[in-house]
Hints:
Layout: E1 4-8, H1 12-23, E2 39-41, E3 47-51, H2 57-62, E4 68-72, H3 73-79, E5 84-89, E6 95-102, H4 107-110, E7 116-121, H5 124-133, E8 137-142, H6 149-153, E9 158-163, H7 167-171, E10 174-183, E11 185-190, H8 191-196, H9 198-210
The structure holds 1-O-pyrophosphono-5-O-phosphono-alpha-D-ribofuranose.
Amino acid sequence: MSMITLALSKGRIFDETLPLLAAAGIEVLEDPEKSRKLILPTNRPDVRVVLVRATDVPTYVEYGGADIGVTGKDTLIEHGGQGLYQPLDLRIAKCRVSVAVRSDFDYAQAVRQGSRLKVATKYTSIAREFFAAKGVHVDMVKLYGSMELAPLTGLADAIVDLVSTGNTLKANQLVEVARIMDISSYLVVNQAALKLKQAPLRRIIDAFASAIPAEKN
Ligand code: PRP
């Protein structure tokens, strides 16, 4: 019996993956919010869950530290997706990547062709591509969290960050001025594992596919 290792990150992705796992007959036996364990057993002796940072899920699956994983499109784009089979858009953990600025900042004026903009973000690839297409020169400041602080402290003119309800922006007196792309989470699979553990992985992929939430309009 070969072991299947699934990489998940704590929080929304973990929570919203549970119903998909249930459809595959897999139940995680410990609550990551209560346990300090990084390897969680399931009801299936041949399936285990490893908890990794959201940005590390594609890396674990790429190098075979995990056979499969669930990761946001944002994280997948920043990683590059090399070496990963991406069979399913799971349509969970939906949000968007947007540009936000202080409400007193004139964004329209700042992004006229040929202008310069100071952008703080953890999503440097997505931000670079978006502003390059507009002909805006960007001074990029790479951050790893709390992006909302950057325009408030003068570190940057704008941020590129995930927006879900918009509450975080509102609480920090920032406004969303451009929507770059819609985000959801994807199933990613290690390419070698897909060959070596084909039958059990296929069963999980098919069960996930059958349990993807319907598209809401
Ligand atoms: C994201 C993002 C914002 C927040 C937006 O952070 O960075 O801070 O969610 O959500 P809202 O529009 O509903 O307020 P997340 O909780 O994913 O954690 P992170 O800060 O570690 O990225």
